């Protein structure tokens, strides 16, 4: 199977690679050559960059934007750069299931960076994990940059670990361990946070439980209150519905009654018109009957005159009969007597003729007078008829006016009543409005108080929140300080424990010293005082200097006597426990330090022995060890003082740099044994600090508890105040609903007052109009009555005049009749006289004939009288009939007068009834208006209840009916509602949100407890994992380090042609943290330290280490950027041959100027910059070229 190889690099827009450039690689060595500044190192920078390098300094730039091609005089800058590594992964060295892996990085000038594997976007972390433990990682050894080959030599021992860990293959384990430790830290932080939250929740659960129970009780009471209120409102709505239905029935009845009254009034009007017409007709008929009676009387008079004439005729016939009888008697007398009688009778006839003429003249005058009377009577009758018609019209008009007056008076009375009622209602509404205004003002004041209370509570909440924030900040500050103190105390205790463990185990001391002290403690060896470091104390600032001055003497063992020293030496010798230096108190004497004048020297601190405190019995030993050592501030002052005293003395700076007698200098980093002197002091100081921190922690814990309690109390106050705000808001909502209700009632009352005031004003105007109408009607009635009286008087006068005319006419008629009778009588007397004269004359001449004639005439007279008597009887019968007709007419007149009286009475009754009905209509109209207004009020009350339902509970009636309870006994329900409200008030402030909050907090508390258990389980598992990883890393690193060390020895010998080299752990007890020391011995040369080596030697040593590492864990490829610069030609050849002949599985890409490296290469890339600022490549396959050359040479 093919080993993983870097098959090619594709570069575009990276630094000087403006154009897309592809470098293909095969097995073996590839050399990249070219002049300085042509862009060779940009290739290794590109590889380092695509592998995730984030340091711009490592990429030889100021900012990451510098890696993008910046343009030239002829080319514009690019907007991005892109590098792709194409790797053959057939052997699945990389944990990626594909034969080819293309790793791409793209960077834009907008500072956006993209990573991709086979075109799929990934994270930088994924890139690191992909190459971990392959040598290609960020801590790998596959990229050795220009001028950095000897960094592994010059770096500190602990800084070399990364490369060795990568080579040993524990990077992924350390990565996993770091991840586990990070997770552990996060888990512990999370655990602390969870405990804090759990404690906080635990403190809240109790109060919230009480508040929740109280809120639950409040909600139960509120639900019951809601059910009762809704039930009562539904009951009110049902009752209102029934009352409205009854009210509608009353309104319908009133409307029906009003219509019936209106119809009756219309009937009254019709009947009144009919009555008036009937009254006029009766009056006219009465007048007609009276005229008929007059006509009949005239006929009776005529008949009476005819009877009188007939009676006169009969009387005349009787007289003629008597005359004829007398004549007959006289016929027997003489002619003389006859002559005398004729003359006598002639005189009577003449007299009668004269009387007749006179009577006829009187008759003519009377007839003319009668004709005038008849004409006057007819004129008067016509005038009476006209006056009667006028009287009827006046009567009708008077009736209308009377009806109008009565109606106006009735309406006025009704208007007065309604005005008084309106005034009463205005007073009631005004009183109601005043009460409502008072309630409105009180409610407004209540709302204002509630709002002020809410604002006050909100301000209190803000104040509490500020206090809570302050308390929380203080608590957080205390908590942070506590955590800091805890961590500090824990760190101090941990460090003290470590130091104590080191002190107890005498870490840093040699085995022999440890063994002697151990045996001294067990009592095997006596007289052992202890190592020097444990018997002295030095101030912290002088510790390094004193310890450096003591050097190995710091582990010298002070004993009481020389014998004690010998016994200890014998013990070490017998047990092969090593060697140790012993300082017997009894024999060691200090030497006098004769040098003086240091005090005036710059940087002088003191004589080392003077800076040490010890028991007086050990003072001589301390002077022996340190009495001739001068301590200075720094190496410069040390060098100056040493030079001043001719390099005769040992001078040590405070940071441990030494100027030895003779002028040599010793310095650098501190050794692993540094700190032995101050260890005990450090332990004591750390323990004291830890104890002090413990006390401060306890104080802070108490402060934190007090702060948290204070914060919890403030939080409880906030909760309580918010509950009060909630209650106040609910009270405000109810008060606002009540305010709206009162406002609506006020508006209704105010509207009613305005309407009633307007109606009252209209009533006043209407009353005024009605009074004016009544007064006008009264005046009209008076005027009409006056006119009626005048007409009636005129009619009476005309009737009286007509009666006088009738009497005069009757008298004239009688006189005429009498005159006519007289004329007739006179005519008859004349005729009789003439006849008598003629008879007498005739009688004289023919008495016999005359007697015969007289007898005949007498017979005729008797027959005539019989006929006349029959006429008299007929005429009397006719007269009787006429009188009967007159009587009938009079009866008719009486009947019609009675009917007219009844009609007039009926008219009065109709007008009275009309007035009553009008008043009743007005009353019914008022009642109808009152009922309608009452219905509107009830409808408003109904709507108010509906509105209350919605405003209070956002319910429609149908929804409310589903919720509300049925109310059978409203009084008991109202009592229960009052009791529930009292119970709600007795609860005081209620935090309704406490139910959900308690539920949430209790659930969170349970959840947090479960989380704490989970996190504690996770923490235990992480501890276990970390321990497992630690052991794995120790084992793997120990094995890998051993192999690298072995390979280093071989490689070093091969590259240097001899000598020896090794790698050691600076702290073998702490394998995973220990630094790595490089120990070399060059052939034929003794070098005290690596710093004294030349650049070429350092480079070759570094290459030995890298090659040793590669033999243990070979990276797929390795970039060596001018690592051979410091080597001479011989070493370059060695270096190149080693790469070529040692069978490395690694591809080597060398950026070089050296011929030897170039000659060893299998492939050459020439780098040029033909266009200024633009890198171009020329590829040369050396193997194919050599093959071609050999073929050409053979040819």
Structural class per helix/strand content? alpha/beta
Within the largest sheet, what's the order of strands?
A: 2-1-4-5-6-7
Mean pLDDT: 78
**Number of distinct beta strands:** 24
Percent of residues in β-strands: 5-15%
Tell me the overall shape.
rod-shaped
Cα-atom Rg, whole angstroms?
79 Å
Number of helices: 21
Low-confidence stretches: none
Largest sheet: 6 strands, antiparallel
What is the distance, rounded to the nearest whole angstrom, between the alpha carbons of the first and last residues? Answer: 38 Å
Helix content range of the residues, please? Answer: 55-70%
Summarize the structure.
This protein has 21 helices and 24 strands. With 1195 residues, the chain is α/β, with parallel strands linked by helices. A hairpin with an 8-residue loop joins strand 1 and strand 2 (21-24).
Task: Describe the 3D structure.
The chain is an alpha/beta fold. Helix content is 70%, strand content 10%. It contains 21 helices and 24 strands. Helix 5 packs antiparallel against helix 16 (970-987), helix 6 (335-504) runs antiparallel to helix 13 and helix 9 packs antiparallel against helix 13 (676-845). The longest helix is centred in the middle third of the chain and has 170 residues, at 335-504. 34% of the residues are buried. The model has no long low-confidence stretch (mean pLDDT 78).
């Amino acid at each position: 199977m093919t080993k993983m190889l870097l098959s090619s690099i594709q570069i575009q827009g990276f630094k000087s690679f403006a154009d897309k450039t592809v470098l293909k690689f095969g097995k073996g060595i590839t050399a990249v050559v070219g002049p300085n500044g042509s862009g060779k190192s940009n290739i290794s920078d590109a590889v380092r960059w695509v592998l995730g390098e984030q340091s711009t300094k490592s990429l030889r730039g100021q900012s990451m934007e510098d890696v993008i091609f910046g343009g030239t005089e002829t080319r514009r800058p690019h907007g991005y750069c892109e590098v792709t590594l194409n790797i053959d992964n057939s052997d699945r060295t990389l944990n990626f299931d594909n034969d080819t892996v293309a790793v791409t990085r793209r960077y834009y000038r907008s500072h956006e960076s993209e990573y991709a594997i086979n075109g799929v976007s990934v994270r930088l972390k994924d890139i690191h994990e992909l190459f971990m433990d392959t040598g290609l990682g960020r801590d790998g050894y596959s990229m050795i940059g220009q001028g950095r080959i000897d960094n592994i030599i010059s770096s500190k021992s602990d800084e070399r670990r990364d490369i060795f860990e990568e080579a040993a293959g524990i990077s992924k384990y350390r990565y996993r361990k770091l991840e586990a430790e990070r997770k552990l830290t996060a888990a512990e932080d999370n655990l602390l946070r969870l405990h804090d939250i759990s404690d906080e929740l635990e403190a809240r659960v109790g109060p919230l439980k009480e508040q929740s129970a109280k809120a639950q009780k409040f909600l139960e009471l509120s639900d019951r209150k809601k059910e009762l209120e809704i039930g009562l409102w539904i009951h009110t709505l049902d009752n209102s519905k029934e009352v409205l239905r009854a009210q509608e029935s009353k309104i319908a009845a009133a409307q029906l009654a009003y219509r019936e009254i209106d119809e009756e009034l219309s009937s009254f009007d019709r009947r009144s018109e009919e009555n008036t017409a009937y009254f006029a007709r009766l009056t006219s008929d009465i007048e007609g009957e009276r005229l008929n009676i007059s006509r009949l009387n005239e006929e009776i008079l005529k008949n009476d005159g005819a009877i009188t004439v007939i009676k006169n005729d009969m009387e005349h016939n009787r007289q003629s009969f008597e005359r004829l009888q007398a004549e007959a008697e006289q016929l027997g007398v003489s002619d003389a007597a006859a002559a005398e009688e004729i003359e006598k009778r002639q005189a009577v006839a003449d007299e009668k003729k004269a009387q007749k003429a006179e009577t006829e003249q009187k008759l003519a005058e009377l007839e003319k007078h009668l004709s005038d009377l008849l004409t006057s009577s007819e004129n008067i009758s016509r005038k009476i008829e006209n006056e009667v018609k006028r009287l009827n019209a006046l009567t009708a008009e008077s009736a209308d006016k009377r009806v109008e007056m009565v109606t106006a008076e009735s309406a006025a009375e009704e208007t007065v009543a309604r005005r008084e009622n309106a005034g009463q209602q205005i007073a009631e509404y005004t009183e109601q409005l005043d009460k409502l205004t008072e309630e409105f003002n009180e409610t407004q004041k209540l709302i204002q108080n509630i709002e002020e209370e809410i604002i006050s509570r909100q301000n209190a909440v803000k104040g509490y929140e500020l206090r809570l924030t302050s308390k929380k900040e203080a608590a957080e500050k205390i908590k942070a300080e506590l955590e800091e103190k805890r961590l500090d105390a824990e760190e101090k205790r941990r460090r003290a424990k470590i130091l104590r463990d080191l002190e107890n185990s005498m870490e840093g001391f040699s085995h022999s010293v440890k063994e002697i002290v151990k045996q001294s403690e067990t009592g095997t060896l006596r007289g052992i005082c202890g190592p020097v470091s444990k018997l002295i104390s030095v101030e912290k600032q002088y510790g390094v200097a004193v310890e450096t001055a003591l050097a190995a003497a710091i582990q010298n063992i002070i004993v009481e006597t020389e014998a004690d020293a010998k016994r200890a030496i014998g013990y070490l010798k017998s047990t092969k426990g090593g060697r140790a230096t012993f300082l017997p108190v009894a024999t060691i004497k200090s030497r006098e330090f004769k040098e003086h004048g240091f005090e005036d020297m710059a940087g002088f601190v003191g004589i080392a022995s003077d800076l040490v405190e010890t028991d007086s019995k050990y003072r001589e030993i301390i002077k022996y060890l340190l009495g001739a050592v001068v301590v200075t501030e720094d190496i410069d002052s040390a060098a100056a003082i040493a030079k001043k005293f001719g390099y005769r003395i040992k001078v040590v700076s405070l940071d441990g740099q030494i100027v030895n007698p003779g002028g040599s200098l010793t310095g650098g980093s501190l050794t692993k044994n540094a700190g032995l002197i101050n260890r005990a002091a450090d332990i004591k100081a750390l323990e004291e600090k830890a104890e002090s921190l413990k006390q401060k922690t306890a104080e802070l814990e108490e402060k934190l508890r007090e702060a948290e309690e204070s914060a919890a109390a403030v939080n409880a106050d906030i909760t309580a105040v918010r509950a009060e705000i909630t209650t106040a808001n609910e009270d405000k909502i109810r008060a606002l609903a009540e305010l709206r209700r009162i406002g609506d009632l006020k508006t209704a009352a105010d509207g009613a007052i305005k309407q009633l005031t307007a109606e009252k004003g209209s009533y006043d105007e209407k009353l005024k109009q009605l009074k004016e109408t009544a007064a006008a009607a009264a005046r009209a009635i008076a005027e009409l009555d006056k006119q009626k009286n005048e007409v009636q008087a005129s009619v009476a006068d005309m009737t009286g005049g007509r009666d006088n005319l009738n009497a005069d006419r009757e008298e004239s008629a009688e006189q005429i009749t009498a005159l006519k009778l007289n004329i007739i009588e006179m005519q008859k007397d004349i005729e009789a006289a003439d006849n008598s004269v003629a008879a007498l004359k005739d009688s004289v001449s023919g008495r016999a004939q005359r007697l015969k004639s007289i007898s005949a005439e007498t017979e005729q007279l008797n027959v005539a009288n019989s006929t006349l008597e029959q006429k008299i009887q007929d005429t009397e019968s006719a007269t009787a009939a006429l009188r009967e007709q007159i009587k009938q007419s009079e009866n008719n007149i009486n009947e019609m007068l009675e009917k007219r009286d009844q009609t007039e009475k009926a008219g009065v009754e109709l007008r009275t009834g009309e007035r009553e009905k009008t008043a009743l209509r007005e009353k019914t109209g008022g009642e109808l208006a009152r009922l309608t207004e009452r219905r509107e009020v009830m409808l408003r009350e109904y709507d108010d209840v509906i509105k209350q339902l919605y405003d209070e509970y956002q319910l429609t009636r149908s929804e409310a009916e589903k919720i509300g309870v049925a109310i059978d006994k409203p009084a008991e329900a109202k009592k229960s509602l009052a009791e529930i409200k009292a119970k709600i008030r007795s609860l005081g402030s209620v935090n309704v949100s406490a139910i959900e909050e308690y539920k949430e907090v209790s659930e969170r508390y349970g959840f947090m407890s479960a989380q704490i258990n989970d996190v504690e389980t996770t923490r235990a598992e992480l501890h276990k994992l970390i321990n497992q990883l630690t052991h794995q890393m120790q084992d793997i690193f120990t094995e890998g380090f051993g192999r690298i060390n072995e390979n280093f020895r071989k490689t070093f010998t091969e590259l240097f042609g001899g000598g020896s080299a090794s790698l050691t752990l600076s702290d073998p007890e702490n394998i995973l943290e220990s630094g790595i020391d490089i120990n070399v011995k060059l052939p034929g040369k003794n070098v005290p330290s690596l710093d004294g080596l030349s650049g070429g030697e350092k480079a070759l040593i570094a290459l030995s280490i890298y090659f040793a590492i590669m033999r243990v864990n070979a990276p797929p490829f390795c970039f060596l950027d001018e690592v051979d610069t410091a080597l001479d030609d011989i070493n370059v050849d060695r270096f190149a041959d080693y790469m070529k002949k040692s069978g490395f599985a690694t591809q080597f890409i060398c950026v070089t100027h050296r011929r030897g490296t170039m000659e060893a290469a299998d492939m050459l890339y020439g780098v040029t910059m033909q266009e200024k600022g633009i890198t171009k490549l020329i590829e040369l396959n050396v193997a194919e070229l050599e093959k071609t050359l050999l073929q050409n040479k053979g040819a």
